[in-house]
Amino acid sequence: MAEEPQSVFQLPPSSAAGGEGLPEVSPEITTPEPPSSAAVSPGTEEPAGDTKKKIDILLKAVGDTPIMKTKKWAVERTRTIQGLIDFIKKFLKLVASEQLFIYVNQSFAPSPDQEVGTLYECFGSDGKLVLHYCKSQAWG
Amino acid sequence: MEEDEFIGEKTFQRCCAEFIKHSQQIGDSWEWRPSKDCSDGYMCKIHFQIKNEPVMSHPGTSTHGQTCLPMEEAFELPSDDCEVIEAPAASQVIKYEYHVLYSCSYQVPVLYFRASFLDGRPLTLKDIWEGVHEFYKTRLLQGPWDTITQQEHPILGQPFFVLHPCKTNEFMTPVLKNSRKINKNVNYITSWLSIVGPVVGLNLPLSYVKATSQDE
User: Fold this and answer.
1) What angle do CA A52, A54, A60 make, to 5 degrees?
2) A140, B92, B108, B182 — which has fewest CB within 10 A?
């Protein structure tokens, strides 16, 4: 997939409501209220490096999962997979009974407590971590 | 129409063999156990975990986390007005056993598991539920058709807890289809276990991901 022309957006902290969630919403109005720990603002982020606190994540949908309009996010290294899943679910407005899985390398689901920073170090390339996400009715 | 979401028993055994090969490389202690007549078998792993017992914590210490006790406190000299510091008592260590079997009726792998204290006392279903990661609890409790139940182990004939496999294809199919599109080699067992394992406290080290890539 080619580099997204859109800007990289900051992932709000898990307590924030994560935007409108409609696929056709343009990136500029998905920004929730600015949290204390991370500036949430659109705008070009400089390339993520090893020493930066945030890493770039590119989210790709699998199957018939809704595609997020904003695919590229700057996320704190310490954000867990669980936090990321909660965010995407809110962003896509999934109901509680729907499960969302995140995969690294398109095939492996990291455990919920896994930090994205670690995944970036192991599987990141070209300055970003590609994660696939998939909606499923799998669990209860 | 869904296609190819099931795996045959031979593929199951082959994937397990590859999985175990990597497990041996990283010392993850999975092993294959053939059944008595050696026609089939299962993957097995035993894992010990220290369970957090709040009643044993000595005053002033915050006990947190389930998998380790703060080692500094375990060896600290007791002060005059404190209780003797708890060392991990035998009753606090839990032995988890995870078995991966093939289900002929569902044509998918199934995760069987049991847990007991070192003195042999088994954990109850209630204890098991309490051990389920918070992240999954709500969802599991919502669905009676996809929960943890107790069943007889098909090969050992002993009671085990089982993560019901009826929805396995639903979450495996998109992953497999997606990988097939780009001709990516996916070890079904590795993918499947990475999804179901964390529900019951079994987390796969990330090196399993790299192992799959190297097989391509």
Assistant:
1) 135
2) B182
Q: Mind telling me how many Å the CA of B83 is from chain A's nearest CA?
A: 34
Q: What is the pLDDT along chain A (140 residues), one digit of tens a residue?
A: 444 444 577 777 654 444 433 344 344 444 444 444 443 333 344 454 555 689 999 999 998 899 999 999 999 999 999 999 999 999 999 887 778 999 999 999 999 999 999 999 999 999 999 999 999 865 53
Side-chain half-sphere exposure of A56, counting CA atoms within 13 A: 20
Kindly provide the ipTM of the predicted complex, given to two decimals: 0.74
B86-96 burial by CB neighbour count: b if 16+ within 10 A, else e?
Answer: beeeeebebbb
Sheet holding B93-103, edge to edge: B30-34, B41-50, B93-103, B108-117, B159-163, B148-152
Tokens of A119: 């995944």
B17-46 per-residue burial string, b: 16 or more CB within 10 A, e: under 16: ebbbebbeeeebebeeeeeeeeeebbbbbe
Tokens of A99: 């499960």
Taking residues B122-126, what's their average pLDDT? 86
Q: How many Å from the N-terminal Cα to the C-terminal Cα in chain A?
A: 34
Q: Which amino acid does the sequence have at B5?
A: E
Out of A65, A107, A112, name the one closest to residue B198 (CB): A112
**Is B166 tagged catalytic?**
yes
Measured between alpha carbons, how far is residue B116 from residues A11, B111, B112, B134 in Å?
Answer: 41, 17, 14, 21
Q: What is the DSSP code (8-state) at residue A115?
A: B
List, in order, residues 6 or more apart from B137 with CB less than 8 Å away.
B129
Minimum-distance CB partner of A108 among B139, B170, B190: B190
pLDDT tens digit sequence for B75-116: 445 555 555 555 555 558 899 999 999 999 999 999 999 999
Euclidean distance between CA atoms B138 and B134, whole angstroms: 7
Say whether domain B9-50+91-209 belongs to CATH 3.30.1460.50: yes
Contact A107 B195 (CB under 8 A): no
